[in-house]
Specification:
The complex is a heterodimer of chains A (548) and B (399). Helices cover 39% and strands 24% of the residues of chain A. Chain A is an alpha/beta fold and 548 residues long. A 6-stranded mixed sheet of chain A has the order 6-7-8-3-9-10, sandwiched between helices. In chain A, strands 17-18-19-14-20-21 form a 6-stranded mixed sheet, sandwiched between helices. In chain A, strands 11, 12, 13, 15 and 16 form a 5-stranded antiparallel sheet that branches. In chain A, a hairpin with a 2-residue loop joins strand 20 and strand 21. Chain A is globular. Classes of the chains: A alpha/beta (548), B mainly alpha (399).
């Protein structure tokens, strides 16, 4: 009854770098039965996506399958001819990419792209495919399913686009769909809708799926079995529940333990103390369109304020107001009780020094053509006037502070570092100015969980050592739980709710805070089911319509 | 129309051969992926390529003389093939030399260098050496006039040559070989100075517009649009005419005006590129970090933006250099560029251009103007090869 669909044996994949073939995946075995969902997890560089693509007998440019077999329903896709694969891909195996926005052709309507595969494979005429597409849109609970297909990709939201892409993958009723991090780029509230939609449709059509992600909580909801990869090797594989309860390998255990990091709570701030940074009814606008309304909160010395909200809620704009990149249209910002000039160009060197920033994307935050020594050395020289060996000594101190070996890293370029190391350099650059206050803008959201945990621990350590204050912008509530002292919840440019962390994670909440909190996936495999039952499935659909 | 019929017939034959080729390949190799997944168009391409190669080889070995009349086409084709192979061998040896001699850094550079780039570097190196040491390499002065005008290149007295003047003399009796060498100095030197000036002006203004934005960007960009709307060569001609009056009045060399005018016209193109590249860089977070640190405009342009814009700017420099070089040659050809008696390749082509008419029956005579034209073409090709390589290298570094 349950018959074997996919059988991968000893799959080896190599990538070319510096004219030499280097192994990326060293011999993976993988089995998948009809209608089964396999979760593939691991940190970046583990070879998850590469294995996912190889399942279709395909590799990215500069890669090649150097060994093993990919047996899909009796056909070895590694050695199959282009014609055989052409007939198979899209029709029997479909692929859902991480960024739907980048994967849709912006010049064609959704429905035209939807009908392309069935028409190409001569499964059914275009008109019939269109009707079928509308049906799928309906099942995926897209708002206005009869007409949304006639929009262009830029006219629908990210979550809707991701669901439209899932519908597109379903258009030929394939036996296998590969989901490559389909919700990673989405907000928690949107993620729920997409997860629920994907899970439903996979169940309805009894489709087998490989679900690639680095988020354990997500994979726990989706997969029947989980396979953990590390640097191209399999670590372990088990049924979802079994693995969640009792991971066997140390690496898997460490992945599971990440979410438990939590720093001890600090005593409440005594009243009457002047806060380090205080926003006084700040409103701001980009051109004529207002984005912030009456934002007011305080950040006290040595404490962390987490600002949470989904994208577009005005978190980053608030940071731009504090740094002076976007002068507020109303209200002002006080630093240690003194009003800061609104425009950063009017601030003194010392005022600029006191407020530093750490960015989300370390790749764009570090000049790729400057050495680490120059990147950290410049603010040292600029603010304290140190040069020569004194400057070098200070840079080495800073590198030691962020737990990187100075001798080894000082002459490297950013491209020679890993993502977590780059983020550490970003921290060191902020520290080099010897500030009292640092804005951390989504500093961990581009990192793997283990690495992100290291960064959070480092930031907490630095706060204890140097008495720094942080404003921590994030949409990840696990991070909030881990590091914050106070929480500010923002929505549509307004502060919805604020208070100490302990209070914020206890009911009663503002309804929006409630929605945010309940949308964070938990490691419990029944979480999504329970949540949907609790909210009522229609509620999810309504939420989607509401997000139009 | 018979040639058209022949062509169609040839293509049909090629198509049939291609099909047979693919089919046989599949059978003989036991359906190897190379033949199995080969589209018909690719097989057709292989066959057509082979036909062209066979045609070229048979043309190469056709007799040089038919009934006492030289077959100029065959002669020129042979020269081209011989030059091509000669340069390829020279480039190969040069690369081999670079791989074995020098520091580990340069050896690594040469190891990763394609043959085309080695050829380009070699040619540029030769040009640079020739123009620097023109005075000691050239047998005669560039202005020296000899009694015998219009000596045919080749140095063979039977054909009207003279061993003293291996490349012959021009219409008023100046040694072409010496003038070619001095021409390198004048043409290449002036082109280099002009390109540098164009890049300094266009680059700084472009980056400034990218950083400051707003009205400054608007003013500069619209001014550049206006300048670019006027056809470059006609604009240069117009300005050179005005400049020639000024140079007489003010006593400033006309070459200075030419450098300024061409640099101004070309800096508009550089400005556009620098602004576009700069705009992509100024949105980066590290620029924001530097701004928030309180850094000045100079630091932003030269320390933060310029190092990240070198790859596209360098590539543009190579192309721009060729264009400037050709503009100077064209202006000289039209008579308003580098003034006689200074040797210049553009002027040399113009002065000897009527000899091209002799190509059909006296190939040797026709080479006289082609030598200078060839020198221009060779440098242009060489620079482009090097630029291609740099682009490839810089784009490879990015991912």
């Amino acid at each position: 009854m349950t018959q074997q669909l996919l059988k991968i044996r000893g799959l080896k994949i190599e990538g070319k770098s510096d004219e030499v073939w280097k192994p990326i995946v060293n011999g993976i075995d993988l089995d998948l039965k009809k209608g089964e969902v396999l979760g593939l997890i691991g940190e970046s560089g583990a070879g998850k996506s590469t294995v996912g693509l190889a399942t279709m007998g395909f590799t990215r440019d500069g890669c090649r399958i150097s060994g093993g077999t990919v047996d899909f329903d009796g056909v070895d896709l590694v050695t199959a001819s282009a014609a055989v694969k052409r007939n198979m891909l899209g029709k029997r195996i479909a692929y859902v990419a991480q960024s739907a926005a980048a994967s849709f052709n912006p010049a064609h309507r959704l429905i035209d792209q939807h009908t392309e595969a069935p028409t190409q494979h001569r499964l059914r005429p275009k008109a019939e495919s269109e009707l079928d597409g509308m049906g799928l849109y309906h099942r995926l609970r897209l708002p206005d399913p009869d007409h949304i297909g006639f929009r262009y990709p830029h006219q629908v939201s990210g979550g809707q686009l991701q669901r439209a892409m899932t519908a597109m993958a379903m258009s030929c009723r394939p036996d296998l769909i590969i989901f490559d991090e389909p919700t990673t780029a989405l907000d928690v509230t949107t993620q729920i809708e997409v997860l629920a939609a994907i899970r439903d449709i996979v169940e309805q059509f009894d489709t087998a799926a490989i679900y690639i992600t680095h988020d354990l909580a997500v994979v726990a909801q989706m997969a029947d079995r989980i396979k953990v990869l590390l640097r191209g090797d399999e670590v372990e594989e088990a049924e979802t529940r079994a693995m969640l309860l009792a991971p066997r390998e140390d690496y898997t255990k460490s992945l599971w333990a990440v979410r438990s990091f939590q720093r001890p709570a600090k005593p409440a701030v005594s009243t009457g103390v002047t806060p380090i940074v205080s926003l006084k009814n700040v409103s701001a606008a980009y051109g004529k369109s207002p984005v912030l309304f009456d934002v007011a909160f305080d950040i006290h010395a040595g404490r962390t304020v987490a600002v949470v909200g989904e994208s577009g809620s005005g978190k980053s704009t608030t940071a731009r107001c504090i740094t002076g990149l976007l002068p507020p249209s109303q209200g002002h910002i006080e630093f240690n009780g003194e009003a800061l000039p609104l425009d950063y160009r009017k601030r003194s060197k010392d005022q600029l020094r006191q407020v530093q920033m750490i960015y989300q994307m370390a790749d764009t935050a570090l000049n790729p053509r400057s050495s680490i020594g120059d990147i950290i050395g410049r603010p040292v020289q600029f603010y304290s006037g140190l040069t020569g060996s004194a400057k070098r000594k200070r840079v080495e101190e800073l590198l030691a502070q962020i737990e990187l070996e100075p001798e080894q890293y000082i002459d490297r370029l950013p491209s020679e570092l890993s993502g977590g190391q780059k983020q550490r350099i970003g921290i060191a650059r902020a520290l080099a100015a010897e500030p009292q206050f640092i804005i951390c803008d989504e500093v961990t959201s581009a990192l793997d969980q283990l690495v992100a945990e290291g960064i959070l621990k480092l930031l907490a350590q630095l706060q204890d050592d140097l008495g720094l204050s942080y404003m921590f912008i994030t949409h990840d509530l696990a991070t909030v739980r881990a590091i914050s002292d106070e929480v500010v919840v923002m929505k549509d440019g307004r502060v919805v709710e604020q208070g100490p962390k302990a209070e914020m994670f206890q009911p009663p909440h503002h309804p929006y805070t409630d929605l945010l909190l309940s949308s964070v996936p938990e490691m419990d495999p029944d979480w999504l089911t329970n949540l949907l039952n609790g909210r009522g499935v229609d509620n999810i659909g309504d939420a989607a319509v509401g997000k139009m | 129309m018979s040639w058209l019929m022949n062509l169609i017939f040839l293509l049909i034959v090629a198509a049939v051969v291609a099909w047979v080729f693919r089919f046989a390949g599949q059978k003989i190799t036991g359906n190897k992926p190379f033949f199995r997944d080969m589209p018909f168009a690719v097989a057709f391409g292989y066959v057509v390529g082979l036909l062209v190669l066979i045609g070229a080889v048979s043309y190469y070995f056709r007799p040089v003389e038919v009934n006492g009349v030289p077959a100029a086409g065959v002669i020129f084709f042979r020269w081209a093939v011989q030059g091509f192979i000669g340069f390829a061998i020279a480039a190969y040896l040069f690369r081999l030399f670079g791989r074995t001699v020098g520091t580990s850094g340069t050896r690594k550079l040469f190891r990763a260098m394609p043959l085309t780039a080695a050829f380009g570097v070699l040619v540029i190196l030769i040009y640079a050496l020739v123009s620097i040491f023109a005075g000691s390499i050239a047998p005669y002065g560039q202005e020296e006039i000899f009694a015998n005008a219009n000596i045919v290149p080749g140095g063979n007295p039977m054909m009207g040559g003279d061993p003293n003047f291996p490349l012959g003399t021009d219409q008023i009796g100046r040694d072409i070989y010496s003038r070619l060498i001095y021409g390198a100095q004048n043409t290449v030197g002036i082109a280099f100075a002009t390109t540098c000036l164009a890049f300094f002006v266009g680059g700084s203004l472009g980056f400034l517009a990218a950083i400051v934005g707003g009205w400054l960007d608007q003013i500069l960009s619209r001014a550049v649009d206006v300048l670019m709307a006027i056809p470059a060569l006609i604009f240069a001609l117009l300005l050179m005419t005005i400049a020639s009056v000024w140079s007489n009045q003010l006593g400033i060399d006309r070459t200075i005006f030419m450098i300024l005018i061409i640099a101004m016209i070309d800096s508009t193109r550089v400005y556009r590129l620098a602004r576009a590249v700069g705009q992509n860089i100024v949105v980066m977070d590290y620029i924001e970090a530097a701004k928030l640190r309180g850094e000045g405009m100079g630091y932003l342009i030269f320390k933060e933006i310029l190092p990240n814009a070198t790859a596209p700017l360098l590539a543009e420099f190579g192309l721009r250099f060729c264009f400037v070089f050709l503009t100077i040659a064209s202006l000289s050809f039209l008579g308003v560029g580098i003034q006689p008696p200074l040797a210049d390749w553009g002027t040399m082509v113009k002065d000897l251009s009527q000899f091209i008419n002799f190509a059909a029956f006296a190939p040797n005579v026709a080479t006289a103007p082609l030598l200078a034209a060839g020198a221009i073409a060779l440098l242009t090709v060489a620079v482009n090869f090097v630029v291609d390589w740099m682009l490839h290298k810089s784009s490879g570094l990015k991912d």
